[in-house]
Specification:
This protein is mainly α. Helices cover about 45% and strands about 5% of the residues. The protein has a two-stranded antiparallel sheet with strand order 1-2. The termini are far apart.
């Protein structure tokens, strides 16, 4: 009668297939230690030939022996050429990744923007701080538009920045036009544009 895989034992490492698993199961039944060792060596060579593209990976051979130990449920008594993974290590669940806690004032701006605003407040007045502020406002507008497809006026961004910083950063009176199309902002210095480049363009993006 045909035996369906669904009725058979679940494979520890399905990528090697049931034939290799049967070889491992057979190795567990071999009483002679030398013969069992030779069988294990042969199984590992077969396993390695199944994935030749992985031979250049770090610890390639060690991983094969780790996999042999796993497929034998760590019951194969042989001389491993490497210190293989322990059963308790294999079944230990990964550590949980701690999620950041704390409220975000405006979720549509995100935590990273808040952290950048806080950093900008620590900088001394100057070109570096001005540049960072303009980059922050660009990103604030991008994030706002992603949340609200109807768009947002630049003055709303400047007002939110002022509120974030409790007035420490207030650019509402400056003539700045945010352009989220190419990640640049442009500042009009009040001079008439008669062909000369009187706009400051920032090419860096977040």
């Amino acid at each position: 009668m045909m035996e369906y895989n669904t009725n058979q034992k679940k494979l520890a490492l399905p990528e090697y297939g049931r034939s290799v698993q049967k070889m491992v199961d057979h190795a567990l039944t071999i009483e002679d230690r030398n013969e069992r060792q030779n069988c294990a060596n042969t199984i590992v060579r077969i396993m390695g030939s199944m994935f030749p593209n992985t031979r250049n990976l770090p610890d390639y051979e060690r991983k094969l022996w780790d996999h042999l130990a796993i497929m034998s449920d760590f019951m194969l008594d042989i001389d491993y050429p490497f210190e293989v993974i322990k059963k308790e290590e294999f079944h230990t669940p990964p550590q949980r990744i701690p999620y950041q806690t704390g409220e975000i004032r405006n979720r549509h701006y995100g935590r990273i923007v808040e952290e950048m605003i806080a950093h900008a407040c620590t900088l001394e007045d100057g070109e570096e701080k001005n540049h960072l502020i303009e980059l922050i406002t660009i990103q604030m507008k991008k994030n706002y538009i992603a949340w609200n497809k109807d768009g947002v006026e630049d003055k709303r961004i400047f007002e939110d920045l002022r509120i974030y910083t409790k007035g420490a950063i207030d650019i509402s009176d400056k003539e700045i036009r945010l352009n989220t199309g190419n990640g640049n902002s442009q500042r009009n210095n009040g001079k008439r544009n008669n062909g000369t480049n009187n706009k400051k363009v920032f090419k860096r993006k977040f």
